Structures are given as C-alpha cells and as structure tokens.
Amino acid sequence: xxxxxxxxxxxxxxxxxxxxxxxxxxxxxxxxxxxxxxxxxxxxxxxxxxxxxxxxxxxxxxxxxxxxxxxxxxxxxxxxxxxxxxxxxxxxxxxxxxxxxxxxxxxxxxxxxxxxxxxxxxxxxxxxxxxxxxxxxxxxxxxxxxxxxxxxxxxxxxxxxxxxxxxxxxxxxxxxxxxxxxxxxxxxxxxxxxxxxxxxxxxxxxxxxxxxxxxxxxxxxxxxxxxxxxxxxxxxxxxxxxxxxxxxxxxxxxxxxxxxxxxxxxxxxxxxxxxxxxxxxxxxxxxxxxxxxxxxxxxxxxxxxxxxxxxxxxxxxxxxxxxxxxxxxxxxxxxxxxxxxxxxxxxxxxxxxxxxxxxxxxxxxxxxxxxxxxxxxxxxxxxxxxxxxxxxxxxxxxxxxxxxxxxxxxxxxxxxxxxxxxxxxxxxxxxxxxxxxxxxxxxxxxxxxxxxxxxxxxxxxxxxxxxxxxxxxxxxxxxxxxxxxxxxxxxxxxxxxxxxxxxxxxxxxxxxxxxxxxxxxxxxxxxxxxxxxxxxxxxxxxxxxxxxxxxxxxxxxxxxxxxxxxxxxxxxxxxxxxxxxxxxxxxxxxxxxxxxxxxxxxxxxxxxxxxxxxxxxxxxxxxxxxxxxxxxxxxxxxxxxxxxxxxxxxxxxxxxxxxxxxxxxxxxxxxxxxxxxxxxxxxxxxxxxxxxxxxxxxxxxxxxxxxxxxxxxxxxxxxxxxxxxxxxxxxxxxxxxxxxxxxxxxxxxxxxxxxxxxxxxxxxxxxxxxxxxxxxxxxxxxxxxxxxxxxxxxxxxxxxxxxxxxxxxxxxxxxxxxxxxxxxxxxxxxxxxxxxxxxxxxxxxxxxxxxxxxxxxxxxxxxxxxxxxxxxxxxxxxxxxxxxxxxxxxxxxxx
Length: 895
Ligand code: ADP
Ligand code: MG
Ligand code: MG
Description:
alpha/beta, Acyl-CoA Binding Protein, D-amino Acid Aminotransferase, Chain A, domain 1, Glucose Oxidase, domain 1, 4 domains, eight-stranded mixed beta sheet, 36 helices, binds adenosine-5'-diphosphate, binds magnesium ion
C-alpha cells in the first residue's frame, strides 16, 4: 500500500510555523485555534496540493479522500452536514498563500446552500431574509468566481431591485425581494453558462476549491506578486471553514481590527465595524463602516472580549496584528489574523515602541523596518502653512504628499503614466481590477470605505498616498468628474494635491516642504515620536553594521549634505561633472589643441578650477576618505551636438572657424558604441597631459588642505581598467606627478591609487590587477552593462518593460544587483584580489550601493563599504545594520 503525502490539516493540527504549507491565513487560523481563541472550526488544503494541481491540471491523488475525511470530521463536530436540508452546515472556501495578497485571490462564502437547504436555514435561524440573502450571495460569488459569469451582471440585477424598492442599501431588501433576486441570479447563470447553478453541496465545494487554486494565476494576482516580489511558484492553500453569520440582524455584524493604528503606529485599538453584514462587505465598502469604538456602544461585552483577543495576539506575535471578526447574535468569532501591513511611519513607531515596551529587542526592531520605508519618510510633505481650504476631507489611509492630474479609471492612469504624467486615481471604491492603475498613479482617492477598505490596504502596502471615504464626493466615472459637497466640479486632467497624512484633497499643486524625518536626519535632534523612533533605530543600525557607508558626491555642497546624513567619506567623485557649464570652452580648447603648447595652456587653465573643486570637497569631508575618479566618459561628450553644429555652420553667413574645427573633431571622434569606446583609463593612456593635470589638481589640493591644518585623505581611482598593464601605466604616471608635487612643495604625499572593477575581464583577472591597486571599487553600473552585454539607457527605453512583464527577471539588474551573474564576478574579484593583496580595501560605488537588497549582498560578499547618493545614505546605514543582524527565527512574518 502506498501512503500519499498529507495534503489536508485540520486547524487543530497546524501552527504559525507552517505558513509555507498552510499559507499565512491557514497558519494564523491554526495558531489562534491553539491559543483557544473562538475560531470557527475547519481545515486547510495545502499549497503543495495547489502546486500539483497547477502543474498537472489535477488534484494530487489522496487529496480528495483526505478532504472528504476532514469534512466528515467537521460535520460530526458541528452536528450538521454540509448543505443538509433541515439545518445545513455552510462553509467558506478561502484562499490564503504564504504571503498576504489582500483581495487578489478568491474566497467563496456560504457554500452548501441550495434550493432546499435555504429553507432549512430560514427555519433554524428563524430569519427568512437572512437565509435568502446568504443564498443570493453564494449564487453571485460562485457564479462569478467558479462559473465565470461577469460580476457586473449580478451588480446590475441587484441595483435594479434596489431601485424598484427605492432602497438605498441592499440590507433594505426584504425576503420576498431576495427570493426574486436569487431566482434572477440563477437564470443569469444558466443564460450565461448554459449550466444550472449546482445544487449538490459537495460539487459546490470541490469546484470552489479548484477555483481558489486557479485564482493563483489570475491576472491581478500575478501583477501583485510581480510588484511585491512574491515568487510565482508558491501556490495558495485553501481554507474550508464553518460559516458564522454577521448578517443575522442588529446583534450581528462584521469588522476588522488592528492592535495599533496601521497608519501612524499610535497605540490603541483601531478598526471598522459594520452591523448586520458579512465579511466581504467591509472590504468592498458597500456601506460606510462605523469606527470600531461604536461596537463598544452596541455590545460592551463583545467589545471587551475582542480587546482581550487583540492583546493576546499582539503579545503572542510580538507585533501589530490585524484581525477579521464576526459577531453572530452577540457571539464573537475571530476569522483571520496576521501581522498587519503598515505605513512606513507606523513601522518605525511600532518597532521602536515594542522595543521600549520590552516586547522585542533592538535587533528585532531594526529587522522590522527597512531602507525603502525610511527613504519614503524623507519625501517632502505639503506646506501646512499654505492655508489652502481643502476640497474634501477623508480618511488619511496612507500618508505622504502627492500631486497629479485626476483620472477616473485604471486604464487612464496607466496610459498617462506611460506618457510620463503624474496622476491621482479617483474611484468610488477600488477593487483588485484597479491594481494596475494604483501602481501607475501617485495617489488614490476614493469616496467610500475606511482604513480597511481595499484602497487603503493596498495603497499602504505599496507606499502610495491614499485618502479614502472622502466625505461628500460624488464620483461620476462615466462623465469622468467628481463634485464636492460645496458644488465644486473636478474633471479628468485637473490637477489635485492629495495629503495622505492629513486626509485632505486640494485643487492645484500645493507647495511642498521638507519632511520632519528628512530634517531630523540632518540635525540629529528628534522633534516627535516618529523622528525619535527613526533616530533610535538608525543609531542601533550604526552600532551593529560592519559595512561603512560613503557618498557619491561631486561638489562641496553635496559632500556637506552627505556628511550630515552620516556619510563616512566619499566613494566616488566624478570629475567629469566639473567640466560642464562655463568650463566647456576650456575642455573644447584642450580637445581642439593641435600642438603641445595649445594643449598645455588649455590644461593649465583647467588646473586651478579642478584644484579648487577638490579643495572644497576635501574640506567638506575633512578627516574622511575621498575617492576621486579620473575622467571617465568619452571626450566627445563635452563637444556640442553634431547636428546642432552642422546646422549652425550651414545657416551662418560667415561660419565661425572654431565651429568648423569643432565639427571636424566631432566627426573624427564619432564612435558607434561610445560606451565601449575611448573612455576611462584608455583616455589616460592616449590623451597627453589630461591625467597629469587631474592628479596634480588633487595633489595640490591635498597640500593646500594640509597647509590649512586640515586632514585630507584623497584616494585616486582609475576607471575602466581591463588589464593590469593599463593600471600599471596609469599608476606610473600618477605616482610621477604625485612625487613631482611632493618635491615642489616639500610635502610628503601618500595617496592610495586604486581602480574600478567594472569590466568582466577586470573581475576575472582581479588577482593580477590587485598587484597594482591599493583598492578596488566596483562600478556595478558598467559591470552590469558589460556582463549582460547591453546599454542601460537603450535597454530601459526599449525592451526592459517587456522583460519585466514576462518575468525574464523580477527586478531590473540595474536596480538590484544580479547576484548570480554580476554578483559572482564581485565575489570572485574580492576573493582573488584579497588573496593577492591581503587587506585590500573594497567598496562599491554603482547605483546598487543604495539599494536595500543589494546592500545585503555586499555585506555578505565582504566589502568594506558601499557608496551611494547622499539622500540614500540613511537608508544604506539602516540596511547595512540589518544585513549584519542574525536571521530572526520569525523572519517569515516580517513580510
Ligand atoms: P481575503 O483574503 O480577501 O480577506 P477571506 O478569505 O478572508 O478573503 O474572506 C473574505 C471575507 O469573508 C472576510 O471578511 C472574511 O472574514 C469572511 N469570511 C471568511 N470565512 C468566513 C466564515 N467562515 N464565516 C464568516 N465570514 C467569513
Ligand atoms: Mg481576509
Ligand atoms: Mg563606470
């Protein structure tokens, strides 16, 4: 006899550690069951079973039998049978993957109702209206989800009935009306599918389970996964759970509660409650929910019990939890819990508060925040002093300031975003179908729903600004406009400012001002709870991190700002930025020089300017290392555009001979592939005098700083080296100039000379190159381009969007280091470089130096520092700290 794998677990068998198998929802239900919370019983079909189904089109053998067995057990425990005619057991069939994907997959409620059991349910509940309301919900959900009927058709039928009765909400429809509506729904199903709504409860259950499996691959679920970097192959578990009913009248209801405010992190219980309703009504925003505190008035006992459970859960999970609950005739049931999604602000405050409450350690607190969230907090906010009267107030569901033009559907948001516009997506409420538009827009504004509506939950997860339930807004999607309670009309294309922190909407573009967090990071003084939490967490990151953080900065101003933000030096000064603007004619003169004298005088004119640049930067970074890269880009980048020149020459009555010479030079220097052309060290070896001038400028700047009593630590970096021979030659010249300046000034100069590793050949021959290099700095932008054989700008403008869409890579290798390819080159170069020269200093100065995920890689690869744009430094410090922490036992829950 072969025993098949276990595909079905009762809630009593599972636990929180089993999220990979049972999904987050299943693991949460099991954990709450173990804790003795009032959870309706049920069982979970594993994600393994789903994976088999998705791969083969069939449920794994054994699953059916195990599920039937678990159902029989559930029926015995409940003393009722699924869809039984007199007193039916009804169940919900709920999706639930490893990582929370709110509303992205399907859940079907009230499975087990049919033409007979509905009357049984009416009788035992003594509530005919309730029974038919449940049945029509089942036909609607099942018809749409399992049988593929357009959901609009059901909505329209419901709207017709409401209109006929003059009812404003569906709870005003009486039993008779609901019976008619259910019949209509069933006719709809038959007309649309050629099949009757299935009456057999077991068939309903089996098909619902399969539909949940299938919903893993629904378009919106795929989009969500891509955005959240959730792997495609996890599959979803399915939870089958006895139904409890919140739609049994005024002593029933349903809601969502948080143990702390997910928007601000404030302590205390938050949430929404909707009397006489089933769970999905809260999320869908069919009626405006009441604030949770109203439940205290409605049912003190239930409110107190809920509070106890919330405290139990927060204590147990040691984090903000949210729960879905239902009250059935005065009895409280908990239907879901998870470590709740939160805003960046809430993440910092909650982690810091829990640490101060001794619930978690400082390491844990650091683990719970991330660099992306910190960067988000540094974004500017609206200037509250502007005194502008808002158009509307709503729920501040996801904080931040956003300006964009109003659009009224997802497609338009996507279209405009593609054209480079910033938009505000305005909807009555959002559903999963609005996801592409929410991703494309800067902010989301809805006229319905509270803090737990779809719009709020999804926007918070994405870090998008969101105001929902904006009072008095009448959104007319067809006419593409909304009107406010004071009669103002806003049309598609009008500019709006949405303040997700205050919950207000304004016409036009409001002025922006620096964020408190941004300011605090520069001053080092906290001004409120949030800035205090940020500083404390960063201080801990600084304590535990091994990686140093430097800045990429080309001016004294940038260097000063970077230093205030915590930079421990400069990892990359791009000298070519110093040849732009007014200095262009000087470099043009150098390029055009046809003899040594002309060239020397052009270089001599550049020398004092460069020296002043370096002196300023060394002063701003006094006492800290400053790595200066010698000129890197092809020289023709400093010349005017070919077409402009040609036109200018053609138009001029008396052509300027200098223009003619420039045109000749441009034509002579033209390259098919400038990225792979005469640049980097190749310039140093072929353009006489250029390197010498730059090195002299650096050396003289060091001397002048020393004379002023400073502590200058310049490091000279040679770019684009492919072979050690190039480096040897460039190094020899650099050393010659250094000793010249040293002799002239009588100042001993010891200046490390190193190289960029940005060509695969450099990485592969790092052992040789290290013989001539005092340090390595990985130029991961070029290294990515040359490893992949593509030019970033071209690729991003042409095929990258398609590549991302088709999942060739989950994220651009220019954003996050490609560990398997480029990353291996880095690791190899570090290992062989250090073997050849023990203690060789290594760093990274590509864009990846500020990318959270990449920083973890660089930590593990053993680099000494990362270098990034000044504004990314706080995030880099934070991530470097996180990278140094040991993996926490409950890492899975931080997602
Ligand atoms: P989602 O993942 O979209 O939140 P859920 O599986 O949680 O989907 O279910 C949708 C809604 O139905 C939720 O509000 C949930 O609380 C409610 N619900 C699910 N199962 C039951 C049940 N057994 N009894 C009553 N309500 C339920
Ligand atoms: Mg749920
Ligand atoms: Mg480069």
